Amino acid sequence: MVRAARNAGLTHLDAARRPTMVDVSDKTATARSAEAEALIALPADVAAALRRSGHRTRKGPIFDTAIIAGVMAVKNTASMIPFCHPLPIEHAQVQIDALPRNRLRVRCQVSTTHKTGVEMEALTGASVAALTIYDMCKALSHNIRIVQVKLVSKRGGKRDVGPTTRRRSRS
């Protein structure tokens, strides 16, 4: 039974099939990066109201607040997800773009040099930034939907995932 669980890729189980943090002590520290994305669907009237207001509500600047929340979430992922290793984050960036059809895209890029990757940090940053947008806009409508959260890419470690070219943000 233990072998079957290991073959299935369940790395957070020990030999007795109990939950455990992965032991990375024998791994070599390498450059690691990940990018995640969240998509938000806004009702048409909410999207129009946000455009008119310059993306501000009485709570403040929506995008700027979401960016800060996303970066804070990246830095605190290990305190929220039980088996995530605390990592020295070297770079975290959140970008928010308006898309056609009243959608917003939140992208979160994270990098470090360590023994384990930053996929969970990127996913957490994108998720929390999207949730912050929802929170700041819910007075306008509760029909705002976070329709997708996904890993876009990861680099470093045993395998790379996603596009081979890394997107550069506008500075």
Structure in words:
31% of the residues lie in helices and 28% in strands. The chain has 171 residues and is of the alpha+beta class. Strand 2 (56-57) and strand 3 form a beta hairpin. The chain has helices at 2-7, 44-53, 62-75, 77-80, 119-137; strands at 30-41, 56-57, 60-61, 91-99, 103-114, 145-155. The protein has one domain (24-155): Molybdopterin cofactor biosynthesis C (MoaC) domain (Alpha-Beta Plaits, 2-Layer Sandwich), CATH 3.30.70.640.
What attributes does this structure have?
four-stranded antiparallel beta sheet; alpha+beta; single chain; 5 helices; elongated; 171 residues; Alpha-Beta Plaits; disordered N terminus; disordered C terminus; two-stranded antiparallel sheet
Secondary-structure-derived class: alpha+beta
- Percent strand equals 25-35%
Could you state the CATH homologous superfamily? Molybdopterin cofactor biosynthesis C (MoaC) domain
Mind telling me the CATH class? Alpha Beta
**How many structural domains in the coordinates?**
1
**How would you state the average pLDDT, rounded?**
89
How do the helices and strands line up, and which of them pair or pack?
Layout: H1 2-7, E1 30-41, H2 44-53, E2 56-57, E3 60-61, H3 62-75, H4 77-80, E4 91-99, E5 103-114, H5 119-137, E6 145-155
Helix pairs in contact: 3-5
Task: Please sum up the structure shown.
Helix content is 31%, strand content 28%. The protein has five helices and six strands, in the order H-E-H-E-E-H-H-E-E-H-E.
